[in-house]
Amino acid sequence: MKIIRFLPLVMVLAAGYLLVLGMESKNASVSSPLEGQPVPEFALPSLQYGQSTITQASLTGDVQLLNVWASWCGICKLEHEYLKQLVSQQAIPIVGLNYRDDRQAALDELKQSGNPYRQVIYDPQGALALDLGVYGTPETYLIDKNGVIRHRYTGALTPTIWQQQFAPKIEQLTSITL
User: Fold this and answer.
1) Is residue 66 situated within a structural domain?
2) Which among 52, 56, 85, 119 is least surrounded, fewest beta carbons within 10 Å?
3) What pLDDT digit, counting tens, does each position of 8-63 carry?
4) Which residues, including other chains, have CB under 8 Å from residue 29's CB and lie 6 or more apart?
5) What is the CATH number of the domain that holds 147?
6) Tens-digit pLDDT profile for residues 15-26
7) If we measure between CA atoms, which residue out of 62, 79, 61 comes closest to residue 70?
8) Distances in Å between the alpha carbon of 78 and those of 23, 149, 173?
């Protein structure tokens, strides 16, 4: 009889374990049908009021990351700290793609947490995200100097993921002389 009292606790712990396990399995390098293709054409506003329209041309010239995020995304908030660290330690720019978000909530999030992005594309309808094949947030794309997608990762970036999946590809891309 005393064991029955602990049954709800055991069930909650089991459900929590399965939830964490499911969240971790979401993080994966996912092959994109767009890998090796240019970023799809787009013309979207900047998240910051009064800024100009941003196009795919802004994703050329440098090897850079395109990070899909939203203020309502809890995992994005955890990843955000690492992105700030990454910008300060690495010489790679990050462009944010604010996905299906409230503009003011996104601006407030960046003001409160700090802004690791060189610029932020505002995609309230998810048009560019749909063209990219975004599954959800966060997702990160490695874009080469010519605006071609070279790698896609779904889930939050971590130091381990960075070292295993992004650093070698970035080193290869930056060592190519044009």
Assistant:
1) yes
2) 52
3) 665 666 655 555 545 444 445 556 678 999 999 999 999 998 778 999 999 999 99
4) 151, 152, 153, 154, 165
5) 3.40.30.10
6) 555 555 454 444
7) 79
8) 13, 25, 28
